[in-house]
Design brief:
By secondary structure, this protein is an all-alpha fold. It is 65% helix and 0% strand. The model has no long low-confidence stretch (mean pLDDT 75).
């Protein structure tokens, strides 16, 4: 068997192994299904309609998301390397962009072009705001916080947390901080 657990393990280890095997199987199934559906819609649908292209793009972006998910949960990438930061950022952009394309396809077939235009504008503004936020704010702070590679500093607005703490401690050691006394409040 490809995924056979070792013979001498505890019940908790067996449960952990089964959960891992099921998670990998579901992730691979989702990757294959979304890839197949996206290519089927793209190659057999009416390619002149924007909704066909948008729906297919949403499905293919979902396949890319689950391919990255599979890579991460199977520990294919070293979680301490710089490439994992790029994988996470691509997955987040895909996670924002895929529903945007699905929404475009849905509103194209909704039948009300005027309402569809306003919803498309709102979806576009919200999607762009989320994607820009993902590049400005670094949600992957932790062990990689001190590394200052290209991908770690891409549109970074603050120095690493350890440097900020060191600067604050240096300021604290430089000049003593006088705490003003709290004023007495008369109750009367």
């Amino acid at each position: 068997m490809l995924l056979s657990p070792p013979p001498s393990i505890s019940v908790l280890q067996l449960i952990d192994f089964l959960i891992f095997a099921v998670a990998v199987a579901i992730s691979l199934f989702d990757t294959a299904t979304l890839l197949w559906l996206g290519l089927t819609v793209l190659f057999t649908g009416n390619r002149r309609k924007p909704a066909t292209v948008a729906g297919s793009a949403g499905l293919l972006l979902g396949a890319i998301f689950f391919a990255g998910h599979t890579l991460i949960i199977t520990h294919t990438y070293n979680l301490q390397s710089g490439s994992i930061n790029l994988v996470w950022r691509v997955m987040w952009v895909v996670a924002v962009a895929a529903p945007y394309f699905w929404g475009l396809a849905i509103f194209y077939y909704s039948g009300d072009p005027a309402a569809g235009r306003w919803v498309r504008r709102i979806l576009t503004a919200a999607g762009l705001a989320l994607i820009i936020t993902l590049f400005i704010v670094n949600p992957l702070q932790g062990a990689r916080d001190d590394d200052e590679g290209f991908w770690d500093n891409l549109l970074s607005t603050h120095p690493p947390l350890s440097r900020r703490i060191a600067r604050l401690q240096a300021l604290l050691n430089e000049a003593p901080v006088a705490v003003p006394p709290t004023p007495e409040v008369s109750r009367g």
